[in-house]
Predict the structure.
Amino acid sequence: MTAHTSKDPLHGVTLEMQVNALVARYGWDELSKRIKINCFKNDPSVKSSLKFLRRTPWARAEVEALYLDSLDDDAIDEPDVPAFNPWANSRITKS
């Protein structure tokens, strides 16, 4: 039996996970500048933000869009690292 794989990048990612990731990446100050929402500006917390975002579809869409953009940025920022090389730590010296 083959496992179902979703092409949706938000599949399995909760809103709380998105908010926590954005706060870890940008911090509350930068997040409030990128998304103009009072729950990010005045006494911000994950709990109050989630309460507002669950009731406000346009704000949730803004958070999801920024989260997806941050995923794209991570893919660009990562250097091209070659695949695992089993010979990299070899004890054999070349003559």
Residues 18 and 24 are 10 Å apart (CA to CA). The chain has four helices and no strands. The mean pLDDT is 84. The helical segments are 15-34, 38-41, 46-55, 57-77.
